Amino acid sequence: MKRNFLIITLILGVAAVALAQNLNWPLKYGKYSCTASKYSNGSYEFIPRGSFVITKDKKYTYNGFEKPSSGTYSIDKDGNLLFKGGYFDGGKAEKTDRENKFLLVFPSNPDNRWTVSYVGN
Asked: How many other CB atoms are there within 10 angstroms of residue 47's CB atom?
């Protein structure tokens, strides 16, 4: 019984370290595409929602409208992006377990949550 407990504890510890390592990827600056998902008639529909660009100087520009919308961002201790100003004002792009992919939520978002993925410079 004690041996099984130790084995399970070891496996959980290794899994926790692996998950933590997956979340430690460095932030890439450049363009991120935005996609909303909508469940309808038994399946998901994926809807493009433009893109945004983040720069090293903590600025972002959302290119989903005729006129781009700009603001600033900061990075919290977990690597999440926190937006101020512009279309994403008050929003948060939370890191996922996939490199260079975030789940974006912001107050003016009618689609609730978007998936954003790095697409390059």
From this structure: 12
